[in-house]
Specification:
Length: about 130
């Protein structure tokens, strides 16, 4: 019988983090970093976008980001990306031949992902 390890948990967080990093993060960057700010310039303020809908601007974006769904999306995007990065770094260190320091590297980076997730919870929810 194989020895039970926590590797399955880390691989699942890695997989979810990869999907989030590939799909959700670019969409968030596009909407909050490019579309909303550029559309909200005074030049475009009177321009209607689609079917008579005007630019929502910063107040509406703030309201969406701090709604329950917005907070959940931000939490998932931030925390899963932390775990994806931690797992990738830990396994890259193995590939680079740092087998002796694997335990320390895993502790530092997975612990950092857990601490980063805690900070994200504190910033987003409190």
């Amino acid at each position: 019988m194989a020895k039970a390890t926590g590797e399955t948990i880390w691989w699942s967080l890695f997989a979810v983090g990869g999907v989030v990093a590939a799909l959700l993060i670019p969409a968030l960057i596009l909407t909050t970093g490019l579309l909303i700010p550029f559309i909200d310039f005074q030049v475009f303020h009177d321009v209607e976008l689609l079917n008579g809908i005007q630019s929502p601007g910063y107040p509406a974006l703030y309201k969406v980001a701090f709604s329950l769904v917005g907070r959940l999306v931000l939490f998932v995007a931030i925390s899963m990306t932390f775990f994806h990065c931690a797992h990738r770094i830990v396994h890259t260190s193995k590939d680079l031949g740092l087998h002796a320091a694997h335990g320390l590297i895993a502790f530092l980076f997975y612990g950092g992902a857990i601490v980063g997730t805690g900070v994200a919870v504190w910033v987003i929810w409190l």
